[in-house]
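Lab meeting minutes (informal)
Scribe: AK
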Amino acid sequence: MHSNTIMSQLLTLIPRHQFDNAVSQYSGNRYVKKFTTWNQLTTLLYSQAGNKNTLRDIQTALGTQQPKLYHLGLPAVKRSTLADANAQRDYRIMEKLFYHLLDRCQQIAPPHKFRFKNPVYSFDSTTIDLCLELFPWATFRQTKGAIKLHCQLDLRGHIPSFAVMTDGKCHDIRAAKAFLDILPDSIYVLDRGYNDFNWFRHIDESKALFVTRAKDNLKYVVTGQQEIDLKKGLLFDKTIQLSSFYAKKKYHKPLRLVGFYDSVSQNTYYFLTNNFSLSAWTIAQIYKARWQVELFFKWIKQHLKIKTFLGTSKNAVMTQIWVAMIYFLLLAYIKFQTRFKNSLFHLHRLIQDTLLDRLSLIDLLHLTDKKLPKIRNMEPQLCFIL
């Protein structure tokens, strides 16, 4: 059967029709004889799931598994062929596939932990350092190169619902203004780097809500105060009006300022929001959930291949990052669909260790560390001709 290996079963989760449409739109297979865009995607997903760092690693690993490549529909993969495909084929093919797969994930994602039903999004960015000599297009500082990955994390399932790559010099708030579409009735959780009262007014006029940390030099007058539960670490819950001339000109409506003391970190936080309906404790918990986007960045940097690249061109780098995001969504989709109870990292390790084994993906999710070697011993051994 075509879907006898774990890798081939992963590929069946890809919306192939939408992928083929994107390939046609951006002429991905023009002048291609053997190594198609689908073969390129398969190879890059293999490198992400199989922890392969270089073109030589990929070629060697696939070369030793030649009898199983038939089930993936892969020809013999050469380093130069893969390098040329990454450099020349438009990365927007992989970007479009990411959003098609995202639609599937969002349909089955579990709800967030809060009682209200409003969507909650956390927006932030992370810097990916690059060597300026190898990546001259990624100018960041005089002797340093970098790009920025700006990401919006949906707290339903903790999956990225929006991503964009910019140069390392792009300020966070500039990227948010330029690329982020504000959805009505949604709650946006933002760090202090996104404090811009013009943008806050835009969020408010879009009938959405925001929760952020107030800057230390915020100037305001108190126009009201609500009762709080001091046992939960809350310090105050005030209704305020901005008093600075320029800030008041940008945002003239009342705002809410919530003070909170975190006994664990022993830090005091001041949260600014245009939400007056939720409790002060809930506002504090919403901002605490913003940390999930930091954990997401940490996870993909540790376990996916977005710090070392298979090519030096901008197109090759963007292609690899989008394939990494696609692989993350595939893991999330499997976890949501099967209600896998263990962590996403545990699922990633299971798939990594059995990527080209002839196992059922559903059976794999229920195998223990003791049962897996027994299943493997039942598989016919490969004979290597030396």
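Next up, CB showed the second protein from the same session:
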Amino acid sequence: MKLYRTGKAAKMLGVHKVTVIRWIKEGKIRAMRIGKEFRVPEDELKRLLGGKTRSTAVIYARVSSLDQKSDLERQIEYLKEYCSAKGYNTVDILTDIASGLNEKRKG
């Protein structure tokens, strides 16, 4: 049985980690305590999601120079709206300010 940390469970459910912990303490979510932390079983997450898991996405945006910083912010907002409209759960946002010709970019 796969167990998820409360932060990961929160991302999958689309809520804040504090909300998941509160729900566990209220008995709305079944979880196991391991040390000082809670772990949520995979079958409990499936129950909460109605048997289906949301697709996840990682957003990647890049511009070539610092002069284009505003373009980078616009790209990120556009991609966040796109993911939301498609029902994707955005789990991370990667950004680069580097040339497209440089293949050793961070992102």
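CB comment: The beta strands are 3-5, 32-34, 37-41, 56-63, 89-97.
No objections, moving on.
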